[in-house]
Amino acid sequence: MEETYNVKAIILNRKSFSEGDSRVIVYSRENGKLELTARGAKKIKSKSAGHLEPLNLSDIMVVRGRRYDYVGAAVSENCFSNIKNDLAKLAVAAQAVKIVDQAIRPGVVDEKIFELLEEYLEVLDTAKKDFFARGGSALGEKIFASFFVLKLLAELGHQPELSRCLSCVAKIQPGKNRFDLARGGLICGRCAKSGDSNQLAISDDGIKLLRLALKSDFKRLAKVKISKKLGQEAGGIVDKFLRYNFN
Description:
The chain is an alpha+beta fold. The chain contains 7 helices and 8 strands. A hairpin with a 5-residue loop joins strand 1 (4-16) and strand 2. Helix 2 packs antiparallel against helix 3 (111-126). It is elongated, with a radius of gyration of 20 Å. It starts with a strand and ends with a helix. This is DNA repair protein RecO.
């Protein structure tokens, strides 16, 4: 008799594996990141294919195999259809699952990461179509994605130091502070080194926004009004911090 186990998982990616099968990469609450074979998923009559689409939240029965574990059955719990019907939302949702896929190794279990991704998708899905339309150019969705990245980095052990200077340990005061990518946090104006490409200028409001992003849930963050300039500043720093750690 085949051994099975059940997981609640968010589908991160699905790719071709053989003539009729697919490989499905998921992040599950119970077992972390898994790579599963979905037998017959490419066939028109497949019962499981629709439940294994990227971005779906699905309950999956997994069957242990000699070489690969495979999907025995799958039922969607949430397809996040509002995300999939909105190009701006879809873009930043796809960015989030891609980062989770790239940054986390198979078998690493962290329930907080699962909950972080689930909450992010739920808030993004239920938000009104123009909810994030502030600052123009889909800025709202982009900065919301940056909040997810920052929270994910913190959960993975890369939480930036935003309260004290990483050089002199003094409490950060308003002024000419910089964000050091290599050391992972703030350097006060007195300790900052001119010409250091890893030290990025950051405004006082930028620091406040990053602090808020780390301590607040996505429902609260979705309501924060952010100027275009501030959103671009904070988002740019988070993006460079991500690329520095996972290039």
